[in-house]
Amino acid sequence: MRDQLDPQHDILWFDDGNVVVAARGMSFKLHKSVLALHSTVFLELFDSLDTSESHLHGGCPVLCVNDYGPDLARLLLVVYGSDRRYFARDKPLSFSELRSVALLAQKYQIEEIISEACACLKIAFTAQMNDEAYWERPAEYIRSGPTNPLWCEDRDLVGVVSLARAVRCPSVEVMALYHCCRIGAGVLFSGVQYDDMEVELSREDLRTCVNATDLLYQHNTYVMNALTDMFAYPSETPRIIPCRTSADCKNALGLLIASGLQNEQFSSPRALECLDRWIDEQSEMCYGCREALKNVVNERRKEVFDQLGAMFGVEPWPPVDS
Ligand SMILES: [Zn+2]
């Protein structure tokens, strides 16, 4: 046992507790039965505690763990139910907070917290291509989307990849790797710092991202070429409603292509982004032409999506967990 305990947590120091948990920088007086109810790992640790007189603190056995105190406090507050809305707050939870709770939940095998964390990650890193609001501006959504429960900076994407693997959430792993391909080498190679731990992508992951970025540029060109193909061969894009203003529509399509070129939409790795609103808002094309163009673009986006598993080494794709 440590000679001196670190400072006691304000809330998680119960007078009627029967075990002291000594973490790095913080200690807790807790109830064995409560922890054992949620975690068989704690149950086993309690069984192996030294209960001889010299190892007690105030009559309680002491369990020393190497967890960072503030992180363990977050997990324990969820376990004790005083933070039941932890994963469904009015304000988004920062990724670093979710990460610390999820990793400790994984270490102590607290399944309900792991699944809550995964559910939260799957909203921020959805593998559902029909979520238009998300795919219109995924980079902005991940940072501060109105219905996103998570606040995630670009540098966190490296941390998301690593966490998704730790909690076995392959769809999130792939989608986070996809997002890694748009943030640029500077962020990707420098990693991210959490409390006292630095997380970096492995050399293998970096190689995968570099290769995938090249592919995504090509795939994006394929998606965007739906516009130029329609411009060059208008009759080959099937329309449910026939076009009666083909000259005007062709002119409008030309302006849309010009706008895409000016916004660098043709030279980007963002192959999955939804163009529906852009096509609707910026073009003077007739309804039939707009719907026809959106259909072709979305079919091509879906083709790109179907290749993500192979691109990032996750099979089957999409995984059953998504
Ligand atoms: Zn038309």
TrEMBL record:
BTB domain: residues covered:
17-77
Q: What is the species of this protein?
A: Phanerochaete sordida
For this protein, the record's SUPFAM superfamilies field holds: POZ domain (SSF54695)
Q: Lineage from the top down?
A: Eukaryota, Fungi, Dikarya, Basidiomycota, Agaricomycotina
- State which residue ranges cross the membrane: none
Q: Which PROSITE patterns match?
A: BTB
User: What is the top-level taxon of the source organism?
Assistant: Eukaryota
InterPro entries, A to Z: BTB/POZ_dom (IPR000210), SKP1/BTB/POZ_sf (IPR011333)
Any idea what this protein is called?
BTB domain-containing protein
